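Final report, results section. Input specification for complex C-07:
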Amino acid sequence: LASPAYTALIRMARGGLGSEGTTGLISDLVRASLALLEETDRVDLISSVPGKAYFAFQVGNTLSGPIRIDLFDPAIVAQYGAAFVDGTYGNLNQDVLERLLYTMAISYRCEAELRGTGDRKRPATFFEVFIGNLFARSLGVNPTNQIEVLTLQPRAALPTDFIFDPGPGRRSVHMPVKLSTRERVIQAWAHQRVLDGVFGVGRFRGVLVVLSETKLDRATREVIEICLPEQWRVYQLFIAQMFRVYYLDVPVRYAALPGVFPNIQVGQLSLAFTEIDALTAP
Amino acid sequence: LASPAYTALIRMARGGLGSEGTTGLISDLVRASLALLEETDRVDLISSVPGKAYFAFQVGNTLSGPIRIDLFDPAIVAQYGAAFVDGTYGNLNQDVLERLLYTMAISYRCEAELRGTGDRKRPATFFEVFIGNLFARSLGVNPTNQIEVLTLQPRAALPTDFIFDPGPGRRSVHMPVKLSTRERVIQAWAHQRVLDGVFGVGRFRGVLVVLSETKLDRATREVIEICLPEQWRVYQLFIAQMFRVYYLDVPVRYAALPGVFPNIQVGQLSLAFTEIDALTAP
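Structure output:
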């Protein structure tokens, strides 16, 4: 399935992440993945995450990653997928938008895990393109992937995650996008520190976007969440300050971070589109 | 081969990285690995690294990682291995010590790559134990792997790389140990930043120890070095200041960093033992 459609999407995304063409190819790839998943067996998983239930798709002996039963909803894509394509997704109610984004984000990943080439980079790249496309359209500007750093001599180009620069009078957004973070999350804070140091604290707002922190033990079929909230607090205090952390499936232990010092703002990705102006407000 | 010997070493190392028992088991494991490698076929590799030549061991269709022809020298281990065991390695001349440490460091890794369980963590763990043992003995203190971070409330334990604390009147050493770094190297600078923020700048000296940055393309048999010197400069300027970076096989492009602003001190690991006092000097 996915290979020519995936390749076409990546090529189109390079020409403009927020373009109509990229949007259309994301939509096509999601629908094709969902059509195949519709005919695929499901197995319930044993959730060790309080308040959340997960299943997986199964082909032969291969299991997909864990999927939230309450958030995965192909019917929502059939009904509201047009709002993704025409750019009005920000007007959907939170509950609908949450399920729409979750289902779209995870569909290609499942399909690639079950019938893909075994290339683990593709689901990550698709997720980056999907998130980059949403924010490029909502912020009205395509992101770049590197930034010129003036260090007297010689100059250096620092590869970064997405940088959205909406222009005069607005702050820029520094957006790392990851399927999951674990220990590697320190990179997001460290890159934010570099941007603060080079351009002044606050010139770039750090906005981390992550799919989930679930881990499936394929032998026992148990789903856990791997979270490091103590370490996040230390990074937020001593490396840099991230402005928002958006998840498609908010981990239980990170959901408890807002409101507790140092008050890391973790929330559902769907929230971003109700506060999109705040991300770049001076 | 390696499984019971490896397991015994890891158990002993937990009880004391610098202990006589750990030292003896490292020596045994290295000698056993070298004995097997002696009977193993070698193939020359195509080096794209200026001034360096590499070979690999081969078993069936499996190639080991690349090995420096001029630094890998089992005869040196036979002749001077006793200096490793009795703790007088710091008195060897630089050229001998360089080859001794390189040969010991890489021997188990090659053996594990060729005939091991496919567990990629073991060579990394062996390397950490080997480096930790050398510095525990030369600094006269065993390292810890986490540090209590006081953030008002609640306290947090931050997992770190090795922390050597030689006691009153001396600085501590923060030592990340890696087989290679690539993009993940930013973690070393970010952890140093946290320590600077929590304990005051300079209380911990950052000393990064790395085996090499070589990459072997197993299809073409070409060896390259993956280096990011521009990014290192940016990290050193804007995240934290590492005090030393020691390599077993110093990458050509990092060898050019000392003396050029911001003057990152990269050198051969063998140098560490001629300047061991400087690492913890007030």
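The first strand of chain A starts at residue 41 and ends at 44. The mean pLDDT of chain A is 94. This concludes the modelling results for the funded period.
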